[in-house]
Amino acid sequence: MTDNAQVSPGDFGADPRLDPDLMENGDTRNVVDKYRFWSVEAIKADLDESRAALHIAIENLEHDLNIGSIVRTGNAFNVGGVHIVGRRRWNRRGAMVTDRYLDIIHQPGPADLGTWARENGYSIVGIDNVPGCTDLEASPLPQRSILVFGQESNGISPELLAECAEVRQIPMYGSTRSMNVAAAAAIAMHSWSVSHQYGKAQDSSQA
Predict the structure, then answer these.
(1) CA pair distance 52, 79, nearest whole angstrom
(2) How far apart are CA 48 and CA 71, in angstroms?
(3) Packed helices 181-196 and 66-76: angle between N→C axes, nearest 10 degrees
């Protein structure tokens, strides 16, 4: 089913995953065809069955508009969880409601993220161009990685950098010193996915 025309329950049978309101009024959400007319809860439950080992963490110090965009990319790669480090309230605008399909974990500070990583067997990898960092593609990222992204203006804070097992940078070949943090996050998540996720994705065209 690819259009958003009104449909009747009889068109679908007694599928408990379907949302009656969406079935009656149409589904205009940006979801793959498989999830058309499914409830948010049903979509999240299905995604939970194939979550990536990858987690991401975003430092929330300045209500950065990029946070929502990074969360949206995290949904695209079906990451295992998103950690918001710092303020609990974050700018959801760029997420385009994709945060509903993810586990959002609040970490009050960098030390809390470090504790979570150790207790759950994860390696924290900062993505920033700071002294001592190595190139993103120099070696595969650990499968159980938490990729950490800082704020657009200042990058990752010293306190959060101290929790990182390593820091990777994205090699650049132009005149700019840095790129948009949301773009950098997308590149880093794709790099992890090439090593650990490629070929496992379901065909999104199938219902």
Answers:
(1) 5
(2) 16
(3) 20
Residue 126 CA to residue 147 CA, distance in Å, equals: 6
Question: Within 86-166, where are the H helices?
Answer: 110-119, 158-161
Q: Give residue-wise pLDDT tens across range 72-101.
A: 999 999 999 999 999 999 999 999 999 999
- φ/ψ of residue 5, rounded to 5: -65, 160
Strands in 55-60's sheet, in edge-to-edge order, are 104-107, 81-86, 55-60, 145-149, 123-127, 166-169, 134-135
- Residue 176's Cβ-side half-sphere holds a number of Cα atoms within 13 Å equal to 5
What is the predicted pLDDT for the residue at 6?
46
- The residues that bridge with 55 in the sheet, in sequence order, are 81, 146
Backbone angles phi, psi at 54, to 5 degrees: -65, 135
* Secondary-structure breakdown of the chain: helix, strand, coil percentages, each rounded to the nearest 5: 35, 15, 50
Query: What is the bridge-based pairing of β-strands 81-86 and 104-107?
Result: parallel
pTM assigned to the model:
0.88
Quote the DSSP letter at residue 141. P
pLDDT tens digits for 35-76?
A: 999 999 999 999 999 999 999 999 998 878 899 999 999 999
Task: Identify residue 175 by its one-letter amino acid code.
Answer: S
